[in-house]
């Protein structure tokens, strides 16, 4: 079973993402910020990361940059959640090493389609 | 994940309340410390989350309002506007408004919201912050039902793989859209030692035949579309796009080529392409033989030059040069084969000449003769055929004159009155065997021996084996015919035959059974000019061994390596004598720790040659040795290597002979010891 790590300081977003992915047959692990996310990632076994960019303690960009330095973080898809207006953020996130993004707000099927696009 | 999940909307409300408190706290602090970046960031993050989550849980009015709020505040965060008191005041009001929108959406007045937003925007600048550009709208496509061919060039950046982009999935997705022909673009792949295994050097070009609109193709590359990593060329005009011989065609052709013929550096010599039209003076072109010789000469020089290029390319690390060198290597070897093919003539043309000869011989000697030929289609270099003609005439004359008995004697011996002469040609590896056989009386060993003693060729008490006695007929000045006839027996025949054949790098063997006949076999190389050679190193010298004679290469067992002199090697049960070329060539250097044995063979004889190192195969352009070296036995010629040095070509026939002699001596010693 594929494991998805969702990193978000918002518990509600984590919950929605978790519900969605669990129902679609993924295993989900959660982290409330980048630092926690790195710990989860370091533990290994994560196939996909969905992360927010605005987070306390360690923001999303730093998290992505650090994640790409981990052996367990290299090569796996990292998606970030972004609002449509974040064109600059998108570019920054991609430069940090993100694979793609999911535009907030999202429809369930859109979300799963993007996940399916990078993880098969 | 627990079984019963709380209502996300309720979770959001709680979360939003916390965030709004945080926002309020930050704003109040900002009133005192307007330059504190951390406070700005915290406030911004709170707004961002409220907006993002709000939209997801159906709090659209919250999301819309917060979006505006956020846009205005973003200017402060970006340093474009100061965090003024007016802003803080407006922001606090905005915060209260959001709270109202979440907790009692029906009780809030949108007009109030608008006023607050105006105040906010006014506080950050004269102009409201322009909303960031949205995703470029996908071009509307008229959904054409008929499939069209798109050309998609896709070059992910070097860090694409680390960043989780999976090109394979994208190509699969493209294949899902229609018929896709995918070609990998390899031009950015560096030499092996410069490759970073985590980097992506490949690109792909896809010719996609699909009815799907452009947006569907763009969807595939969603995340990398704006990185200039993807170029999607629309089908300008279907036929034009198809016929365009762009790089796609050229690149696409390359793997096919590679499949058809893997780029081997030195493909083996392909002997005797039988094209029945070549050589027949008829539906073909007559060319002066000298021109063909000149062409062959140039090809020979080209082969040497190519060897140099190959060496240069191998020494450097330039993949472009290597590719060109391999291409040229392939072309040169094809050119070599083609040129040799032009020079190949079926031996049948020679055989027909002998019909007339036999007819005349038969009439003059009063011996009816029946000629049987086979292998007329066997092809040989034209020069070779021309030079073979005279020796063959000698052999046939000898066979009829000396070999065949008179008709009455044949009848008495229970043979048909007509004598049988067989002319047979056939391929054996890179050699051609031509046999002249008769069913006559066979060689008279006693008479040959007596004659040899009489002529002082051997001592009267010499102990010779039957094959050795047979060999005496090739000795200069040997003739056994009692009376000198006009046909043969002048004693100038067989030795000349032998010399001529050896000059062609061939060998001659005679076998005979008394009463049953004699068989003379000429063993000739296919061509005089270029052979495939195995390069070996002995001491400091490099030598070439004709590859056609090489049977296999094995390692010299360590216990044999330390011993000297004659030895036998067990190769799959058979004992093979071996020669230490180091001793034979007197290299005077220390032997390599792991010496190799090259097993060479001709006919049934096998000999191992101990060398220091096997270097590999080499297209050997044969240069003959000068007249000064005419007596050199061990070498049959020389060749020029890629680096310009000269390698001597080992004479296989001679080495086999030496090997045989060594073996005899060794066996004799063993017998003595026993």
From TrEMBL, chain A:
Superkingdom of origin: Bacteria
Cross-referenced SMART domains: REC
Matches recorded under Gene3D superfamilies: 3.40.50.2300
UniProt domain Response regulatory: residue ranges: 3-119
Signal peptide span: none
UniProt keyword 4Fe-4S present: no
Keyword annotations of the record: Phosphoprotein
Residues with the 4-aspartylphosphate modification: 52
Protein name stated in the entry: Two-component system response regulator
